[in-house]
Amino acid sequence: MPNTVTLADAEQQLTAATATVDQLKARILDQGPGSVTAEELGTAALAVEHARLTVQHAGQHAQAQAEQERQEQLQLLKAQILDQASTVGIALDAMQQLEEAAAILIRACGGRQTLIAQATAAMRRAGIPRHSDGQADQHAGLGWTQAAMGQGDTVHVDDRRITHVSPGVLIAAALDRAAREAGYGIRHLQPAVDVPGVQQALAQDPETWLKSRY
After folding, report:
1. Which of 1, 64, 152, 203 is the most exposed place for a label (fewest CB within 10 A)?
2. pLDDT confidence of residue 1
3. What does each C-alpha distance from 124 to 119, 131, 143 come to in angstroms?
4. How far apart are CA 176 and CA 211, in angstroms?
5. Which of 139, 141, 206 is nearest to 175 (CA)?
6. Closest listed residue to residue 62, CA positions, set 17, 11, 13
7. Rounded to two decimals, what is the model's pTM?
8. Are the CB atoms for 26 and 34 separated by under 8 Å?
9. Gap between the Cα atoms of 31 and 81, Å rounded
10. Are 5 and 54 contacting, i.e. CB atoms less than 8 angstroms apart?
11. Between 174 and 136, residue with greater pLDDT
12. pLDDT of 108-166, one tens digit each?
C-alpha cells in the first residue's frame, strides 16, 4: 500500500475487503464449508485487518497534514499582523516628537501668570487705568483688565491681549486636530484626552484663538 494513500481510498479498500469476507462467509453458510477454504477466508480476513490499519494510518496522516496546513496559515496570519502593525520604534519616535513639542508649549505658557501679575502691578504704579479703547493712545498702548467672564487677568499691549493660557488646553486641542487629521474623532482619544466644548474654537481655528489671547 503506498504511503500516500488517501483516507477516501483507504476507506474504499476497507469496504471492499469487508464485502469480500462477508461474501465468503455467506458462501460457506449457503454452500457448505467445502466451498471456501480456510486459507481463502483467512487471507480475506487479514486483508480486512490490513485495510482497517491502512484507514487508521491514512486518518492520522490526514490529521497531520491538516495540522501542518493550519500552522502554515497561522504563520502567514502572524506575518500579516506584524507587517500591518507599527513598530515600537515608530511609536517611540512619535512620542518623543510629541514630548518635545509639548515641552515647548509648557515652557511658553509657564511664566505668563507671573508676567501678567508683574506687568499689571507695574502699570498700576505708573498710573495706567483699566484698559479702555479710548485711552490706549494715552498710555503707549498699554492697559490691563481684571479677571471676569471666565477670563483671567489680562495685559493689553496695543491690539494684543496677553492672558494666561493653559498648556494642557493647547496640547489637548492639538491632539484633537491630530486625531481628525488621522481620520478619527476626538472620541478616539477619550478619556485620556478631551477638549471642553468651550475650547472647541481653539481646535477649529488655533491661529485666531491664540491671537486673541496669547
Report:
1. 64
2. 44
3. 9, 11, 9
4. 19
5. 206
6. 11
7. 0.61
8. no
9. 70
10. yes
11. 174
12. 998 898 999 999 999 999 998 887 665 667 888 898 988 776 677 899 998 888 999 88
Share of the chain above pLDDT 90, in %: 53
Per DSSP, the residues of the chain read: --TT--HHHHHHHHHHHHHHHHHHHHHHHHH-GGGS-HHHHHHHHHHHHHHHHHHHHHHHHHHHHHHHHHHHHHHHHHHHHHHHSPPHHHHHHHHHHHHHHHHHHHHHHHTHHHHHHHHHHHHHHTT--B--GGGGGGGTTEEEE--BTTB--EEEETTEEEE---HHHHHHHHHHHHHHHTT--GGGTTTT----GGGHHHHH-HHHHHHTT-
| CA atoms in the 13 A half-sphere facing the CB of 132 | 6
Q: Which residue has the cell 482619544?
A: 189
C-alpha cell read off for 171: 496640547
pLDDT at 49 over 60: yes
The separation between the first and the last C-alpha atoms of the chain, rounded to the nearest angstrom, is 88
**Distances from the Cα of 205 to the Cαs of 57, 135, 186, in angstroms?**
73, 30, 16
Q: For the chain, what percent of residues have pLDDT higher than 70?
A: 93
Residue with cell 511658553: 108
